Amino acid sequence: MSPADNEIRIRGLAIGARPRTDWTLDEVKALFELPLFDLLYAAQWVHRQHFDPNAVQCSTLLSIKTGACPEDCAYCPQSIRFDTGIETHDLMPLDEVRKAAERAKAAGATRFCMGASYRGPKDRQLEPILEMVREVKAIGLETCVTLGLLREGQAERLAEAGLDYYNHNLDTSEAFYPKIITTRTFADRLETLRRVRAAGIKVCCGGILGLGESREDRISLLHVLATLDPHPESVPINRLVRIPGTPLENATELDSFEFVRTIAAARVLMPASHVRLSAGRTEFSEEMQALCLLAGANSMFYGEKLLTTANPSTADDDALFARLGLVRESAPVRDESRSAVAT
Ligand code: SAM
Ligand code: DTB
Ligand code: SF4
């Protein structure tokens, strides 16, 4: 049976394998509020229509420019407005980036994501980053960058350099967003996502849970993501890492099952996308990580560090993979007729 006509019915909801971008808010809410085991069953079923359920895509992160960011994102250790004690640095030399990418490839990652603490890069700041994209690609890794808002023409330049993915998160619902960030709008973010898509770069877009948002906000965030046409190819779901010195340092920890529920709903709503279990893993038990993977997450950050905070060690991740019988998803085959990597 093809994904087009393949569906299951659970408590009156028709759940299909074919990606849809016309979800209504009511449908997303009904799905999100299913009994957890029904939702997990739906997510597993959808997951197996599109993916090897035992393979996990592994990306490694590198902060190529750290801290002193003019933005006021209330969760972020890199904002210049909060005293978080992080070590800041300007743009890293190309050579160091290449070495880090080579180490990531040797460890088994297939994608290398470079993050910079800009509101958005100036044209002259983009130039050395294009060079980094070319170098990392030449090593044989997929490339991703997250640089904030993009101005006109910048996405095209990144595409020409061979960039595969651009990460730009919506972070939370449109309604809750102004409580978290005041220096740029939700609409600004959608505009950058539009530019990335128009330039032919794959979109990596998700959010953070545990900012103090309500369930309605989580449902609304998923609704916006699942009605982007086409869906983001990669959907990172972060749990807030509470950083001393930020306004959210004392945020209440989000219930683990609510986090799992959000992952499972994302899997059902965006059946063909990779859903990434992102920041927050160091605070999760191995059983919790396994539950997130069972709920349809099939991507992770792999490597000891995220941008400024810790991630589980590769040894711990390798041991977890072995215990669960998981494998690292292999790199997509390169299509030499295009500069980008085919998926
Ligand atoms: N400056 C760029 C931007 O904001 O788009 C790129 C880097 S920014 C650190 C990338 C993403 O990391 C944010 O959108 C947010 O989703 C996530 N993030 C940052 N701090 C976090 C934290 N303390 N806990 C969880 N996720 C976080
Ligand atoms: C994403 O969604 N999560 C990553 C990546 N995209 C750039 C970043 C997580 C950052 C966590 C806090 C830190 O290490 O500074
Ligand atoms: Fe700056 Fe990005 Fe952190 Fe916001 S999330 S303060 S834009 S580095």
Describe it for me?
The chain has 343 residues and is α/β, with parallel strands linked by helices. It has one domain (25-328): Alpha-Beta Barrel (TIM Barrel). Helix content is 35%, strand content 16%. The chain is built from ten helices and twelve strands. The strands form two sheets. Strands 3, 4, 5, 6, 7, 8, 9, 10, 11 and 12 form a ten-stranded parallel beta sheet that branches. A hairpin with a 2-residue loop joins strand 1 (7-10) and strand 2 (13-16). Helix 1 packs across helix 7. The protein is globular, with a radius of gyration of 19 Å. Bound molecules: S-adenosylmethionine (SAM), 6-(5-methyl-2-OXO-imidazolidin-4-yl)-hexanoic acid (DTB) and iron/sulfur cluster. S-adenosylmethionine binds at residues 75-76, 115, 117-118, 146, 148, 168-169, 171, 208, 238, 240-241, 243, 279, 307.
Distinct small molecules: S-adenosylmethionine, 6-(5-methyl-2-OXO-imidazolidin-4-yl)-hexanoic acid, iron/sulfur cluster
Sheet/helix structural class? alpha/beta
Overall number of structural domains: 1
Q: In angstroms, what is the radius of gyration?
A: 19 Å
Largest sheet: 10 strands, parallel
Shape: globular
CATH domain fold name: TIM Barrel
Task: Write down the secondary-structure element order.
Answer: EEHHEHEHEHEHEEHEHEHEHE
